[in-house]
Specification:
Keywords: Membrane, Transmembrane, Transmembrane helix. 65% of the residues lie in helices and 5% in strands. The protein is mostly helical and 794 residues long. The chain folds into three domains: 264 residues, no CATH class; 245 residues, Collagenase ColT, N-terminal domain (Glutaredoxin), CATH 3.40.30.160; 119 residues, Serine Threonine Protein Phosphatase 5, Tetratricopeptide repeat.
Length: 794
């Protein structure tokens, strides 16, 4: 055979074309970070391609067998239908295995240029996604092949199950309260990419069992009905002649049908009714149906939680001038783990605009994320009519402007961070030279950037547009998926120049820049090839800790530090685990090694100093502890971290106070979340309050503990004692501590419905000459909240 004929054969033979395409596609995939390694993302992208090619493999197996039968009809007559089907399946399986082997080989070869942190886990993903879906596609292809004669019709019939499952999956994503998608042929979308832990769960394994049971029933039925000429023949089928096949049919069909009928109960998808099992309590308000768990923090705080929902609605309605359809269903989960199990998103709160649902984790009052997620629901009234997002279809194709989707919610519900408002955060992002170019995030490129950088830039830009040019043009911009010329009569580039000039004119302190450097240093998941393995190791370490397997926990954390040595947070966790296991010397060595890294941000360096100070405090080596705490306090930090360091420093400076401060913070307690720890912290705070001259500090700590358990009225008296000490008592020594006490007293008075007293506290906060932009933003929100609460919860 000539070279020309050989090349021509590779281009004209369907089986060879498929192999070349799969090989080249997988090799191209290996050039991309994360997707190019053998793991979840690579398997997810490959699965639809393998499924579609498996259809053609099954169809071609039938066509080849029919062609062979035409040349040797005598051989065909000697075979039973079961034998014919087995030969068909083996022929198709061989072709499918060649496709899977080529793609798997390309992924393994990619280890020379791609980082793969979990090869065994990647192999499992390859088995449960493309391999499993390919086998299902092969069965569909065999059925399509025997039902028709012409190849286009065969492929069309074989593709009907794929089309049906795709339509059903999209419909469920649209109407059901889930953010994951699981499909026999198209694979498993685990949920928001910001949840980095993506394990192979029981949900996926049971779903594959369900798939293969129905596939087994389909193969058994085909064996029973396969007639001469490889056609389906219903007449003359004798069930008595094939008892084993009939038994196989029912053994697969009955349990498979049961798994499918109870799909919601098995976690294949969810409905509002099935979520009632997890969140059986409801609270109905004017605009919401709030679903929550019995005996949860939300249940104990349901009146304030309902009020905050209605307050968020009123604020957004006043700003946007339009309202979505009520009621909105709000699902408040007591833990991220329960939320992930039921809807597919654990640490990420979500709100699909078209569904009118918001899915939240419990948080202390006032809920920081509620307003943002509700803003997504409000975006439905200005977005395109099907999904309510900032998207449009034109001759250029589909455009989805993710920067406006998230910018809308961030701009209408801005949040402070480390004492800074949204624009100051964006200005710091610009000063650190980490700000994404707006044009790069106005589409799906948004997901390719660090979430914190992209959200901050999109939110600040959107808020600046609203403040400088009004709400209506911004709503028009959202509805057109980013047509800046139509909405503003100028280009995105020109607006970006103005916005940057505004940011660069904002005064910033060096300490504020340092306080946010670590937050913005986070790389996007697509630039972290070991992100999923790191999340799995962290989850395994937490599980080992809960089981009391401290050696196993430390080993897992060491592995975590090895695969992501550039993440200093991992070494902090390792040091914490070592000290909780009683390995103080090892913890000191880990922290000392971390402190020698040259690229540490102030946030991490201060945490290292704080941990070293804690170790010294536990040894009662107070001068050394004082040195570490003092050094930590020289760094650029947010108020919360500063307050904790200041209290520990007070303990290191006074031998009488030191053991009680150590007992209060108890940094080496193996189970800090155990209910007994809250009692012990409360007892330690009372001991501090009983010390001569330390009643104000004790009151501060008592008030914080009481607010942690939602006891606002009880927290008022100790917080007032903290702010107004007796003559011989030490006053709260710093502006940060006093500000913290005022913020807690504001919440306590609001919880107790003492709105006049709360307003006086708020006025004192607003009069603070050192109040930063974040505090002013929060104070404005509290002013509106108190006005609302006077009427809603008098």
């Amino acid at each position: 055979m000539s070279i020309h004929a050989a090349v021509r054969r590779h281009f004209t033979t369907p089986a060879l074309r498929r192999r070349w395409f799969v090989l080249l596609f997988t090799l191209a995939l290996t050039s991309q970070p994360l997707f190019g390694a053998l793991g979840y993302e690579g398997a997810l992208v490959l699965t639809p391609l393998i499924s579609l090619f498996a259809l053609a493999v099954g169809v071609d197996a039938v066509r080849d067998a029919r062609q062979a039968d035409a040349t040797d009809p005598h051989a065909m007559s000697l075979q039973t239908p079961g034998e014919r089907l087995r030969l068909l399946f083996l022929r198709g399986l061989g072709d499918l295995c060649s496709l899977l082997t080529l793609s798997l080989g390309a992924f393994i070869l990619a280890n020379f240029w791609q980082v793969n942190c979990d090869l065994p886990g990647g192999l499992l993903w390859f088995l449960v996604l493309p391999t499993a879906s390919g086998l299902l596609g092969l069965v569909a292809g065999l059925w399509g092949g025997v039902l028709a004669r012409r190849r286009p019709v065969q492929l069309l019939l074989a593709g009907l199950p794929l089309l049906f499952s795709l339509v059903l999956g999209v419909w469920r994503i649209y109407v059901d309260p889930v953010v994951y998608a699981i499909d026999p042929f198209w694979g498993y979308f685990a949920g928001p990419l910001y949840d980095e832990a993506i394990p192979i769960t029981g949900r996926l394994l049971w779903f594959r069992a369900y798939n293969f049971l129905l596939a087994g029933a389909a193969v058994a039925l085909l064996s029973l009905t396969l007639g001469p000429g490889l056609k389906v023949q219903l007449r003359g089928v004798s069930l008595r002649r094939s008892p084993f096949t009939v038994a196989t049919l029912f053994a697969c069909l009955l349990p498979g049908t049961l798994l499918g009928v109870f799909a919601a109960e098995n976690g294949f998808h969810a409905t509002e009714a099935s979520l009632a099992n997890a969140l059986p309590r409801t609270r109905v308000t004017d605009h919401f149906v709030i679903h929550y768990a019995a005996n949860s923090a939300a249940a104990r705080d349901i009146e304030l939680l309902a009020a905050e929902h209605e307050f968020a609605w009123r604020r957004l309605a006043a700003q946007i001038g339009r309202e979505p359809r009520a009621p909105v269903h709000s699902f408040v989960f007591p833990s991220p783990e329960l939320k992930r199990a039921w809807i597919g998103a654990g640490n990420t709160e979500v709100a699909p605009p078209w569904r009118g649902h918001i899915y939240l984790n419990e948080q202390a009052f006032p809920h920081r994320v509620l307003h943002h997620e509700l803003a997504h629901v409000f975006s439905y009234v200005v977005g395109e009519p099907l999904f309510g997002t900032s998207s449009a279809v034109s001759w250029r194709g589909l455009r989805v402007n993710l920067a406006l989707v998230e910018g809308f919610a961030t701009a209408f519900a801005p949040r402070s961070e480390s004492g800074l408002d949204l624009h100051d955060q964006a200005a710091i992002l610009d000063r650190l030279e980490l700000r994404p170019v707006l044009g790069d995030i106005m589409g799906f490129g948004f997901w390719g950037k660090s979430s914190r950088r992209a959200y901050t830039a999109a939110g600040s830009f959107s808020r600046w547009l609203i403040d400088t040019r009004g709400v209506d043009p911004f709503l028009q911009l959202y509805g057109t998926a980013g047509d800046f010329e139509l909405a503003y009569g100028t280009s995105l580039d020109a607006l970006e120049v103005e916005w940057l000039a505004y940011l660069r004119a904002r005064p910033l302190r060096a300490r504020d820049i340092e306080a946010l450097r670590q937050r913005f240093k986070q790389r996007p998941i697509f630039q972290r090839p070991c992100a999923h393995r790191a999340a799995d190791l962290l989850a395994g370490a937490n599980l080992a800790h809960h089981r009391g397997l401290e050696v196993e926990r430390i080993d897992l954390l060491r592995d975590l530090c090895t695969i992501e040595p550039e993440q200093p947070e991992h070494r902090l966790l390792l040091a914490q685990a070592q000290v909780q296991a009683g390995m103080q010397d090892a913890a000191s060595a880990t922290l000392a090694e971390l402190s020698r890294q040259v690229d540490l941000t102030d946030t991490i360096a201060a945490l290292v100093d704080e941990r070293l100070g804690d170790l010294a405090l536990a040894r009662f080596d107070l001068p050394v502890a004082l040195t570490y705490y003092d050094r930590a306090l020289t760094r650029g930090l947010g108020d919360n971290q500063v307050r904790q360091l200041q209290i520990k420093r007070m303990g290191a400076a006074d031998p009488a106070l030191a053991p009680r401060v150590l007992a209060y913070f108890d940094p080496f307690e193996p189970n800090p979340e155990h209910p007994s720890e809250a009692v012990l912290r409360l007892y330690a705070a009372e001991q501090i309050a009983a010390l001569p001259r330390y009643a104000p500090l004790g009151g501060y700590l008592l008030g914080r503990q009481l607010l942690n358990v939602q006891q606002g009225a009880a927290a008022i008296e100790p917080l007032q004692r903290a702010l107004h000490p007796e003559d011989e008592e030490h006053p709260l020594a710093t502006a940060e501590l006093r500000r913290g006490a005022l913020l807690m007293l504001l919440e306590a008075q609001a919880r107790a419905r003492n709105y006049d007293a709360a307003a006086r506290v708020l006025a004192e906060l607003q009069d603070d000459p050192d109040a930063d932009s974040g505090l002013r933003l929060d104070a404005t929100l509290w002013t509106e909240r108190l006005e609302f609460l006077r009427a809603y919860l008098p």
